[in-house]
Write a structure and sequence with these properties.
Elements lengths: L10 E8 L4 H7 L9 H24 L5 E4 L1 H6 L1 H9 L3 E4 L12 H19 L5 E2 L10 H7 L4 E2 L9 E5 L2 E7 L9 H4 L17 H18 L2 E6 L1 H4 L2 H15 L4 E3 L2 H11 L1
Parallel strand pairs: 1-2, 1-8, 1-9, 2-3, 4-5, 5-7
Antiparallel strand pairs: 6-7
Helix pairs in contact: 1-2, 2-4, 8-10
Length: 278
């Protein structure tokens, strides 16, 4: 059975960006002796909010597209100008931890403290709390979805088990907490993310051809379009916002927009639609 989308659209497209800045590098470096001195790797992350976010906002404005930006609250504090600019342009801001913490390693009390601290920062800086969450640094703890629902979140975009949104089952109950799954094959970081030392990836040998990645992203979209699914592109400004790669993203957007009846939406819009219709 084909899914039903607004105004008879054939499929949904969610453009999402994880504005991690240097948090992922700082978190990784601290486990290495002397890692706090690895400032070159930190600069990779700093490029994201300083140079890439403005390019991404310009591209989205050019094509009049909505997007969702998942931002650690520490990044919002350190880079207030691009953070506020995202909200001013009408895009959604989603929760991504405070310092891109691994929620799987934290107690319930520690997770609640991070959630509440980050929501307070969002409220202070842009006037409202986040309604969506993406788990930072891999997995979340078993209790995390319940904590998020209790905190008033509408949805998560964290798991990998489907290519459609779904209602999360908590304690045996099917709830109105919606999951919008992203996929590794639609993640720019696993295609392009690279650093010489500390090694990322650990085995090295990865800066992929842009043409190959563009072709993969296009073919995945064509599959999602054929089956009427929810295409979630998970990107990182420090990766996708480089001069050549932003042109690659523009080519992908042009390709998607060449198809009729595509619904571009934020995570919040998709989750609200799913909640009301499924």
């Amino acid at each position: 059975m084909r899914l039903k989308w607004p105004n008879g659209a054939r499929c949904a497209v969610m453009l999402s960006f994880d504005v991690d800045a240097e948090t992922i590098w700082a978190n990784g470096n601290k486990h290495i002796e002397g890692g706090e001195s690895f400032i070159r790797s930190l600069s990779i992350g700093q490029y994201g909010p300083l140079r890439s976010v403005p390019r991404i906002l310009e591209l989205l404005k050019k094509y009049d597209l909505p997007a969702t930006f998942f931002v650690p609250a520490w990044v919002a504090e350190q880079y207030p100008e691009p953070f506020v600019a995202i909200a001013k342009d009408g895009h959604e801001l989603g929760h991504h931890g405070y310092l891109h913490e691994r929620f799987v390693d934290l107690t319930s009390e520690e997770q609640i403290a991070i959630i509440e601290r980050s929501q307070a920062i969002f409220k202070q800086m842009v006037g409202k709390e986040a309604r969506g969450f993406r788990t930072p640094s891999g997995d979340w703890a078993k209790q995390t979805p319940q904590l998020l629902r209790d905190a008033g979140f509408l949805y998560s975009s964290s798991m990998r088990g489907d290519d459609r949104p779904y209602r999360t089952v908590l304690n045996g109950e099917t709830t109105d907490f919606i999951e919008i799954p992203p996929r590794w094959e639609l993640d720019d970081y696993v295609q392009f993310g690279y650093n010489l030392y500390p090694a990322e990836p650990v085995g090295q040998d990865r800066i992929t051809s842009q043409e190959c990645v563009l072709d993969n992203f296009k073919q995945e979209f064509e599959g999602y379009y054929r089956y009427g699914l929810c295409y979630v592109l998970m990107m990182h400004p420090q990766i996708i916002g480089k001069p050549g790669r932003i042109l690659m993203l523009e080519k992908l957007i042009q390709h998607i927009k060449s198809y009729p009846d595509v619904w571009f939406a934020t995570g919040e819009q998709i989750a609200e639609w799913w909640k009301e219709n499924y």
